[in-house]
Amino acid sequence: MTRYTQGTASASERAMVEHWYESEAAGKKLADDHVFEHLDAEIWAGTLQKAGIARPVVHRRLFTAYRAAAAAAILLLISGALVFYLKDQKAVPVPPAAIAQQDIQPGGNKAVLTLSNGASISLTDAAEGELAKQGDSRISKTKEGQLMYEPGGGPAGAEAGKRNTISTPRGGQYRVDLPDGTRVWLNAASALTFPPSFAGLNDRSVTLSGEAYFEVAKDAGKPFKVISNGHTVEVLGTHFNVNAYNDEPDVKTTLLKGAVKVNGSLLKPGQQSVLHEGKISIRNAETEMETAWKNGEFIFNGQDFKTVMRMVSRWYDVDVVYEYDPAPFRIGGEVSRGRSITEVLKMLEVTGGVKFKIEDRKIKVIR
């Protein structure tokens, strides 16, 4: 900050300070706090004033980690992190990028349902209405584009041993309502396997690969279980998120409501379990960040660059190629998942330490 106000900061450092300033000003009046009031005058007196840019005063919700204290933003700036804000379709201007004149649109509702007999149904192309029947269960696609299971009144256990799988590709997401009324949102590159009916079964067990958000229907006599990568979540009725991608080092369960046990460890709302190399640890969670994907957003709070790029890869269905290995740095901020990939990459380039080039469906990280 001192280098900025003295005019000795590099171009990339000036850009980072000004992007942070514009984002903070958009979220609240800086003069509301004596710390921000001082920064307001100093930053605006820099290149923003010289460029004829007025002090922003638009009120908007901003990522809580940055609104909480100026210190957090300054620490992110010093460590080389990126702060950006693109939620409300008003992009902050960025320096020219090395991105090719191509673009890739974000993902959408795409999935395939595989029945227990091996038949596959593309939910992306299927029309609204009944898709299939399995035993006494009716499977249909709603007018909102969701998959719904409606159990009939047939004999208990008639579907025992049968399993259906709904899977999303990279660049896809989908919601399914299970036979017990549980709602599940699947993120990109994920799969959920479950029985077409829970009648006659001792529990409600499903298997997950990838990431999903669950709103579990209550049934005190029949616990709901999510099994993934040596990790079992047991619940009766609750809201939680499970991140169990094979290319991530940890399996994370984040609890928003109710109570769950993860491999025997009890979680309370606002907590997260992390399974790493076979060991479970419990910590407080940034629940808004962990479930942002379900609400159509990316929210970053210090994730490392390569973790962020894996998220980008899954949502935009692209491969990331590193033509060199950039020095580690962390990302902070918020951006709509409805943005095109070019807009997202341009914001990442603001760090000054990394650039991108798009070739077909490959994102190349270049110098």
UniProtKB/TrEMBL annotation:
Q: Does the keyword Transmembrane helix apply?
A: yes
Q: Which domain of life is it from?
A: Bacteria
Domain Protein FecR C-terminal, residue spans: 297-365
Indicate the transmembrane segments per the record.
65-86
> One GO molecular function term?
sigma factor antagonist activity
Record domain FecR protein: where: 165-261
Map out region (Disordered) in residue numbers. 150-172
Is the keyword Glycoprotein in the record?
Answer: no
Arranged from A to Z, the UniProt key words for this protein are: Membrane, Transmembrane, Transmembrane helix
The record's annotation in InterPro entries points to:
FecR, FecR_C, Ferrdict_sens_TM
What protein am I looking at? FecR family protein
Record organism: Chitinophaga barathri
Instruction: Recite the lineage of the species.
Output: Bacteria, Pseudomonadati, Bacteroidota, Chitinophagia, Chitinophagales
